[in-house]
Amino acid sequence: MRVLDCNKMAGGALVRYPGRTFMMLLATAIGVSAVLVLTSLGEAARRFVTAEFQSLGTHLVIVIPGRSETSGANPSMMIAETPRDLTIDDARAVSRSRHVVRLAPVVVGEASVSRGSLEREISIIGTTPEFREIREWKMRLGEFLPNVTMERGAPLCVIGAKVRTELFGIDPPLGQWLRVGDRRCRVSGVLAPEGTSVMIDVNEVVIIPVLDAQALFNSPGLFRIVLQATSREAMPLAQADAKRIIAERHYGEEDVTVITQDAVLSTFDGIFGTLTMALGGIAAISLVVAGVLIMNVMLVAVSQRTAEVGLLKALGATRRQIIALFLTEALFLAALGAVVGLLLGYGIVAAMRTFYSTLDFVPPLWAAAGAMLVAMACGIFFGILPARRAADLDPIQALMGR
Amino acid sequence: MIQLQELCRDFDVGEEVVHALDHVSLNLPAGEYVSIMGPSGSGKSTLLNILGLLDTPTSGSYTLDGVNTSRMDDNELASIRQNKIGFVFQSFHLVPRLSALENVELPMMLSGNDPKLRRERGHAALERVGLGHRDSHRPSQLSGGERQRVAIARAIVMEPKLLLADEPTGNLDSASGREIVKIMEALNDQGLTLLVVTHDPAIGERARRQLKFKDGRLELDSGGAA
Predict the structure, then answer these.
(1) A54: which of A67, A226, B119, B130 is 20 to 30 A away, CA to CA?
(2) How far is CA A274 from the centre of its chain?
(3) Are strands B16-28 and B33-37 parallel, antiparallel or unpaired?
(4) B58: burial class by Cβ within 10 Å (0-12, 13-18, 19+)?
(5) Residues linked to residue B24 through DSSP beta bridges, in sequence order
(6) In b/e form, how buried is each residue of B190-224, taking b as 16+ CB within 10 angstroms?
(7) Rounded Cα gap, residues B2 and B34, in angstroms
(8) Structural contact between residues A307 and A333, judged by C-beta atoms closer than 8 angstroms
(9) B153, B129 contact by CB (below 8 A)
(10) Residues A287-326, buried b or exposed e (16+ Cβ, 10 A)?
């Protein structure tokens, strides 16, 4: 029997029983589109997080006080030592590395911010103007803490867009006094509104000079040192420099953790990649369910067409030919269902993108290919049993329609 | 053409063993026109199934065209069915979704013939049964007699040596039944060995040689030196 003839026979049978064909197509299509939709969810989450981390700035290296031990920590050490503070002097020393373009010390805390009778509890960031450049924040009004450095504080502050509307309403905020904790400062600028960036809501923040923040929170320690390396390649060098310089200043002890943006990115990339795979795997179960359905419906098809099978045998069809016919039919169903599922899946994902544009929903290519393959594999695997049952039919009984 | 020796076919029905064929010996030369008659349960259908290689005997031997069929595997049997035997059934057994021509082409398709050759010979076979103008009709658009003629065309398209007909007129009115018998007799005149199983004495008695079965035994053989 020729391949083309086999395909024609199998295809003809599918056309002949449209209801049955439709049901099986639907089952496979739902399975395939489920894989696409779920993996595109995971993929969108991955892209979202990656983009968030990229929005932190470029070529970022971050110094965090305290050592995060990943191997063989001695318990007595953990009890005996408290991490040494990261100080402004540390930051100044690191900024002298030739791999560092710019650097900003960061202090964070909360304080009540008030203007007249209006008062709010708001996140406070203490830093220097370099921080704005590193984070690539834009100003709506005014300037970002002019003339402030690591050595020089000023009674100034920069406020987020939401803080402005809540405390000033429609009044012009520039040059107005605000009370931050027990200190007074003038508003030197307003940040342009932005989406939530990692950890910080840019719209709901008050930024003051780092020295003032240290005085406000009465603590010499820094929360972070954020620095920008000269290039992507310089990131590990800047990381090593920061580690070495701070260790020298801390009497040879490596009591800070220095991470690069790349490392964080690749970690999150890995986590979300795995998550996406897991989602795809769960959805693939529905494909197996579709496979079982194909098997059942094919079994019904075999018993519906026993007379035809008997006839084919009487006409000289071999076992292999009959198995080939029914397997081809199952494979056609699976393949068609997979194609319909792809269209359906891409359709749903496109709709999701329209209705929820914050996330960038795109089904990963590997998921589409994988879903197709699994669908076909299920078609073959679950087609074998019905095909064999057809091939094993006794032609006499089959011809009598029993 | 066909030699049967001490052929037996037993069926287990519950505890009992039923002897559907009980030591049947028979010799049919090529070109013979034979009718097989007998009441239901007499074993005539079983005999036809064994002759058509759809069933295998419990004991005894069946030699077709000089070849002993008892030790053949499935594929060899399928190949003989394909090339040497044509079947005509009581209920026609046409594939409803295929046209008349496609139904006739089925055996050639299974044997992997070229589509062009298939169409030519399929059409020629339909011409031989007087349905050359009905190539593209589906079985549901044909009358009972026409359907059986398509089935005959399908049975002869591979140029077999043996035509086995199981109650070929059983589902037809007597006029179309007569027509079917005439077509098969014409094929027999051209050298095809023809075996017809029937209830109907009017049809059975037309055969040159008549076999009557009862309880699995050959009771009467009108013209044989078996």
Answers:
(1) A67
(2) 10
(3) unpaired
(4) middle
(5) B7
(6) eebbbbbbbebeebbebbebbbbbeebebeeeeeb
(7) 12
(8) no
(9) yes
(10) bbebbebbbebbeebbeebbbbbbbbbbbbbbbebbbbbb
Is B95 in contact with A5 (Cβ distance < 8 A)?
A: no
- Whether residue B97 contacts residue A12, with contact meaning beta carbons closer than 8 Å, is answered with yes
Residue recorded with tokens 């981390």 = A53
**Helix axes A3-16 and A319-355, enclosed angle (nearest 10):** 60
- Interface contact flag, A319 B109, Cβ < 8 Å: no
Q: How many Å apart are CA A321 and CA A1, to the nearest integer?
A: 7
pLDDT band at residue B226, thresholds of 50, 70 and 90? Answer: very low
Closest by CA to B213, choosing from B46, B38, B27, is B38
Structure tokens at A131: 């921080």
Chain A CB contacts of B109 below 8 Å: 1-2, 5, 9
- Residue whose tokens read 């087609």: A383
Count of CB atoms situated within 10 Å of the CB of B12: 8
Q: What is the pTM of this model?
A: 0.71
Q: Is the pLDDT of residue A80 over 70?
A: no
Which chain A residue is nearest to residue B51, measuring alpha carbons? Answer: A314
Which of B74, B93, B102, B158 to mutate: most A Cβ within 10 Å?
Answer: B93
Nearest partner of A190 among A154, A142, A145, A147, judged by Cα? A142
* Averaged pLDDT of chain A: 86
Contact assessment for residue B64 and residue B84, using Cβ atoms and an 8 Å cutoff: yes
Cα-based distances in Å from A249 to A82, A228, A372: 16, 21, 59
* Cα separation values, B180 from B89, B177, B185, Å: 12, 5, 9
Q: Which of A390, A316, A215 is nearest to B81 (CA)?
A: A316
A310 contacts B81? CB cut-off 8 A: no
Whether A318 sits inside 8 A of B49 (CB atoms) is no
Structure tokens at B110: 């299974």
The interface predicted TM-score of the complex, written ipTM, equals: 0.89
Distance from CA of B134 to the nearest CA of A (A): 20
As beta bridge partners, residue B196 has B35, B165
Chain A residues close to B93, C-beta within 8 Å: 307-308, 310-311, 314, 399
